[in-house]
TrEMBL record:
Keyword annotations: Transferase
UniProt-listed InterPro entries: AGP_Transferase (IPR051678), Aminoglycoside_PTrfase (IPR002575), Kinase-like_dom_sf (IPR011009)
Pfam families, alphabetized: APH
Protein name, entry field: Phosphotransferase
Amino acid sequence: MSTGQTRPSHPPLREELGEDLVRRLIAGRFPRWAGLPVERFPSGGTVNAMYRLGDDMVVRLPLREGGAGDVALEREWLSRLAPLLPTAVPEALGAGEPAEGCPWPWSVYRWLPGENPEAGALEEPVALAGDLAGFVAAMRRVTLPGAPPAHRGGPLGSLDAETRAAIEQLRGIPREGVDCDAAEAVWEDALRTPDWDGPPVWLHADLIPGNILVEDGRLTSVIDFGCMGMGDPACDLFPAWNLLPADAREVFREALGVDDATWKRGRGRTLSQALIALPYYRETNPAMAGNARHVIREVLGES
């Protein structure tokens, strides 16, 4: 998710270029796939657009410059990570380059079936918690050298100024109903927690519902690795408050053996992301804003 921390130097691609642009890109770069149906896939994502290509493929097209870095990161690491993980991840079938009015690299991936889970409507929340913990644990066991630092994977204090600014923004939006004093108290409690002093671990670093796919209530795929890298293991505790109810949250924590300090940092990181996202997306992206409201309710409800 982009929280607006980095503004693109290129303007976002115009939406009306959408399907026609993708058809031109495919015809120019992958003529063997020219003529396959192209259809925009609805998504709450803000950095990349997704287009179905035939029945078995999807085109991931950056909407802004920040997405170009995600393309390069996934090209470098996903094929190496895939055999080490218990869950399917995107498989690149083709690497596209800037052309036809698209100024950034883009990719064609194999289509992964499944649906994004919805907090409060999970079919198998406890089983899903175990699946998610298995994925996170497998990421932590990865030993591939040379990984970049994960986005948001550094010290918690690096998020302080932006988090406090978001709290002040929300004080000015009383109809959102956020208890800003309580949010500030949770955030300050997290800041008092010692930073991670162990070795950095491999992270997905953006385990929000939009990057998780399920079938029959069970985890089938994890997508969008644009934030991946190494850092504080607390960064991959997002599902605890983004998605899981209280009982499943405890299953997730126990399966990962999370200590109190890491749990507090994870809660603080998840709350920070939601506090920043809500005022930024409340008028433009209902999915992101709705998820942010859910996280804030969950975190403040247990504090």
